[in-house]
Write a structure and sequence with these properties.
Blueprint (H helix, E strand, L loop, with lengths): L5 H4 L6 E2 L2 H4 L7 E2 L3 H8 L9 H6 L6 H9 L3 H9 L5 H7 L3 H5 L11 H14 L15 E5 L3 H12 L3 E5 L8 H4 L8 H14 L2 E3 L10 H7 L2 E4 L5 E2 L12 E3 H13 L15 E5 L3 H12 L4 E6 L26 H4 L3 E4 L1 E9 L2 E14 L6 E5 L5 E4 L2 E4 L3 E3 L4 H6 L22 E3 L2 H4 L4 H21 L1
Parallel strand pairs: 3-4, 3-6, 4-5, 6-18, 8-16, 9-10, 9-16, 10-11
Antiparallel strand pairs: 1-2, 7-17, 12-13, 13-14, 13-15
Length: 477
């Protein structure tokens, strides 16, 4: 490394946010990025450790993190970009929304703050775009093989680009009006503005990837048609089946799955629907978000921007460990520490160990929600903790809208999967082997369709690996 004492000489510095009052007025990204001089200093903190856990264990993509840190420190931005693009098709996405397991794995995190990896990654790719270094890379030789990719989320986009660069003809099918999948419709603009996706899609168009949108596979186009007209099919449809909360009053108006809300909001912002078509609006209302993950946090941020009167976010699990140090606690505690998102900072009353008992309404509409506090106790049968009601702890709140952000079960089990006669695993995901092949010959699967809901960086990694497996099979035909 260029500066062997950088981690001793400099403290971790990250970008700042626009003030809450300002950013709540729009849906624009609000992080103020570091300047190049500060990024150089932050890159110098990479300590040339013997085993770079950020690369070897922290990043599913195997990003060459120490190498591009060193390049940034030495001012070799183009070299940094080459290193970054060698492992990641969508660094402008991961640099914005990935939870950065690489930083959690940084050796410095043992007793110091980790290197500012996520912001360096984003700076590299954005600098590359600004300099005009990123352009289409169409294949030099066409193989004559055709691949259909079903779904245009992170796994599908990564796989499609890799397959096209291998020389195959690639058609991506997307059920929505525009390509991007969950990146476009499930993530709010204040975390990921959609021009970022369109910029990458334009590169893929120029490389020869074909996109067919507004196509519902299994209805508009059959599995039989795809098998007849393509040499391989890759399923990257995501984990679209939400986990329901089947309690009294669930069917009342005003109780929605989180994705219903986020998708509508994103379509409203993009102009795909008009304001007169909006069905779910938090303005002036008391909002309850059930579930403490990223999707729930996105609902909180969206509701605040719509002008909610009050936002609550309740989680049935116990409150995580509060950790205020700059370094990580020892395992197994790191995954269990309390995380506060930018959306929480904008206004939200959070609570834990709260079980939602029933939804109460009048004339078919939600008006109140009843809760009970629980404590987690290990069962005698198998030692697995379960929630036990605390006597006398019932309480209720006046609520106008409820968003269920309780996670996702598995891929949506639709006619397309049935027609392919795909085998599913015990959790309802599409079963695959070590080559990403399914039980149906010529049909492959990648991303959340196979793993269940996971991180964007894992989906991209899965897509790249599946593309390589498909390419190897097509070369043998």
């Amino acid at each position: 490394m260029g500066n062997t004492t950088g981690f001793l000489d400099h403290l971790r510095v990250t970008g700042t946010y626009r003030p809450v009052r300002s950013r709540l007025k729009d849906y624009k990204e609000f992080t103020n990025q570091l300047d190049q001089n500060m990024l150089k200093i932050q890159g110098s903190r990479c300590m040339d450790c013997g085993i770079p856990y950020c690369h070897a264990m922290g990043c599913p993509l195997g990003n060459l993190i120490p190498e591009w840190n060193d390049s940034v420190y030495n001012g070799n931005w183009r070299e940094a970009l080459i290193r970054l693009e060698s492992t990641n098709n969508l660094p402008e996405i991961t640099g914005r929304i990935c939870p950065a397991p690489c930083e959690a794995s940084c050796t410095l995190s043992i007793n110091d703050a980790p290197v500012t990896l996520k912001q360096i990654e984003l700076a590299i790719i954005e600098y590359g775009f600004n300099q005009g270094w990123i352009s289409a890379s169409p294949p030099e030789v066409e193989t004559g093989k055709k691949v259909a990719v079903i779904g245009s989320g992170p796994a599908g986009l990564a796989a499609a680009q890799q397959l096209r660069r291998f020389g195959h003809s690639v058609t991506v099918y997307e059920k929505s009006e525009k390509a991007g999948g969950i990146l476009r419709y499930g993530i709010p603009d204040f975390k990921l503005e959609k021009w970022v996706i369109d910029r990458r899609l334009n590169q893929m168009y120029d490389e020869g990837v074909q996109f067919e949108t507004n196509v519902n596979i299994g209805k508009d186009i059959s599995a039989r048609y795809l098998k007849k007209n393509f040499d391989a099919i890759l399923i990257t449809m995501g984990a679209g089946e939400p986990r329901n909360l089947d309690i009294e009053g669930r069917k009342l108006n005003g109780v929605h799955f989180a994705m219903e809300y986020l998708i509508e909001s994103n379509k409203l912002i993009s102009g795909e629907i008009a304001a007169s078509q909006q069905k779910i609006n938090a303005k002036g209302k008391n909002i309850l978000v059930i579930g403490g993950g990223d999707t729930g946090s996105d609902c909180v941020g969206t509701a605040n921007r719509q002008g909610a009167s009050q936002v609550y976010q309740f989680e049935i699990m116990p409150k995580p460990l509060e950790w205020k140090e700059s370094w990580n606690p020892n395992w197994p505690y790191w995954p269990l520490i309390l995380r506060t998102s930018s959306s929480h900072e904008e206004g939200c009353k959070r609570d834990w160990s709260v079980q939602t008992s029933r939804f109460i309404g009048k004339n078919g509409k939600i008006e109140e929600v009843e809760f009970v506090r629980v404590k987690w106790e290990q069962t005698k049968e198998n030692g697995v903790p379960k929630p036990v009601e605390i006597p006398g702890s019932k309480f209720s709140l006046k609520i106008d809208l409820v968003f269920l952000a309780t996670g996702f079960l598995h891929i949506e089990h639709n006619k397309f999967l049935e027609d392919l006669e795909l085998k599913l695993d015990q959790r309802g995901n599409v079963m695959l082997d070590e080559n990403f092949s399914t039980s149906s010959p010529g049909v492959f699967v990648a991303g959340d369709s196979a793993t269940g809901a996971s991180l964007v960086v894992r989906a991209i990694s899965h897509g790249r690996k599946a593309a390589e497996a498909i390419n190897q099979q097509l070369k043998s035909l």
